[in-house]
Amino acid sequence: MTSRGKKILGMVPSCSSETSFENNLQQIEETIVQEPLFDSDDSVKDADYLPDSDDSVKYTDYIPDPSSPENSDPGHRLAMNTGTTPEENTFPVTNDGEEIHQKNSWKKNVRKNKKNAGDPYINSKGHHVPGRFLGEPCNNSCRIKCSTRIRQEERTNIFISYWNLSNIDRQRDFVNNSVEVTDCKRRTTATPNNLRRFKSMKFYLKIKDSRINVCRTMLLNTLGIKKGFLNFAIKKRILPSNITEKDKRGGYGTTKIPDAALDFLKQHIKKFPTVASHYCRKDSRKMYLDPKLNIKQMYRLYKEECTKENKEYLKESYYRHIFRTHFSLSFHKPRKDQCPTCTSYEAANAESKASMLEQYNFHIKNKERARNEKNLDKAEAKETPEKIHSANFDLQQVLYVPTDPTNPILFYKTKLATYNFTIFNCGNNIGKCYMWSEVEGSRGPCEIASCLFHHLKSLPASIENVRLFSDTCGGQNKNQFVAAMFIYAVQVLQINIIDQKFLVSGHSQMECDSMHARIETVAKNVPVYLPHEWVSIAQRAKQNNPKYQVFQKADIGFLDWKTLAKLIMVNRNKDADGNVVNWHHIKWIRYEKESPFEMKIKTDLDEDFRSIMILPRRGRRVTVGSMEACLKPLHTEKKPISALKLKHLKEICNSGSVPEDCRLFFTNLLAEEGIQDETVVPDVNDPEEENFFSQ
């Protein structure tokens, strides 16, 4: 194997295309926007969040616009590689009544609805058309004397009932049921050519169960219609049922799209890799596409494919129609950017808001309390950095290789994942990135615990109290394996107390999110072919000092914390008083050196600590040595990937989308049948998380 091949396999940044990659990064650094927008997987669009700034980041510029389209789509922590072949990609038709096009809000339909309801409106020429009104009854010269037979109140009720129909077909039916048409019984002339009419009409208004004979003027004025409408309705009646022929204006045309063209369009949409929604996958069948895609871009690729195969392409409007009505698809935007509690409250009507107010106020109180707690910890860490360490951490959305914004072929293929776990030190504004590819590890709790342990070991010996903030993701941050690591760390390191605190779900924006945003901004216009190139991007993402510190798997040393958790986490579900502990509600966990196998918890930041004795006082004795003996390397060999992913990566290499000297890395990857690509991580909104500690 060439030295180049060995270096690629070792993720050492040295390929002959490295010069081009470095040049691209240099160009991006020269033009990069100093304040990138938040667009990370775990950032939160919280308009009133205003963290302190470091020397080079203006966090006020990160406050998002609530009306931004980024706040509109569900889905959270979605990896785009699902292991589904394009040929087998099947998407359910939306059957939950969702209507992508809000047709009732179209101007022409608003105009039509107002007209049919008798309301004033602006016509297509911009002229104001007054609403319909109840006319005067017929005068005293009426032979039938209608005004003496029907009271004004009854006329008003008929007028309201008629216009409440708000449908022209139903209104014509109403008119036809109020008119009887018969042959003329008496004629005043014997010459057929001079006859004025061949039919006679009688008009009625229904009052309760009676039909009152009225004159035409009374009928027209009571309904607020004109003579032309009356005559046209009679002309369109279908005898003998008196039902009016359906209005044929509007609706869909008769143009038939060829089946072959429609099938080709559908097959093109099915080629794009998808992932299920993690937040609501039990209640919804909606699938999500790569967030870098949009319909316009998909349509452009569709046109290119049609041109290559000498096929006539359909219009973009029809492409959009098929996409929205035949597929339950959307483009992934981080759902964690929206708080479900706040969103539900804001979308509720006045009556529902009243019933939700108490819960909403409690939610806002918890949000503000957690944020204040975080700010207090940050302030104390800045005042006494030699004793108190305050930081927050999060896992960035999955980074993929190879990526190239100019290469459409990559949109159709599953790619290799790279993970980036970030820790931001609030005391000195130093950010750390822990990066590894999916062949080196997954994004499970053992990897996260290992990164945190590496960080704790690097702290100065004078640090006595560590305070960590994160979101409430059960699969990464709030679980028995991370808890076991903290219990071990507080015993073997110089630290006396470790406080693990959790922000409120939906309001967990942290400084480490700015690290994600910087990395994504730098990589936005740069092709990335190998995992180690993400390391170079992270190292250059911040222009001012202190730069981000980047660690790879060899630096971290992933450990298997599951055996340790099995040894010491015996009791996880009951506190010292015998009360059941719901881990989903925990807001604060404290680990103390003087209480080796005790966890102190709070489900409300303002309450007193409750104790959980994770290890019974009686029984086997656990020592630091026995705990150390449990810690083994998590992965001794590179992990295989799915056969489908390897197939796609080789196809990408063979297509020339990857530089020749970068292909050896992908061709040397191992694959196994039956491996499913990792899609999502258990999260706070998943009911399964509540049972995560009891596994």
From TrEMBL:
Name all DUF7869 domain ranges: 464-552
Q: Where is the signal peptide?
A: none
Tell me the superkingdom of the source.
Eukaryota
Q: Which residues does the annotated region (Disordered) include?
A: 34-104
- Protein name, as recorded: DUF7869 domain-containing protein
Q: Which organism is it from?
A: Psylliodes chrysocephalus
Q: Which InterPro entries match?
A: DUF7869 (IPR057191)
Q: What is the lineage of its organism?
A: Eukaryota, Metazoa, Ecdysozoa, Arthropoda, Hexapoda
Q: Where is the composition biased (Polar residues)?
A: 81-93
Against Pfam families, the record matches this protein to:
DUF7869
Q: Which residues form a coiled coil?
A: none
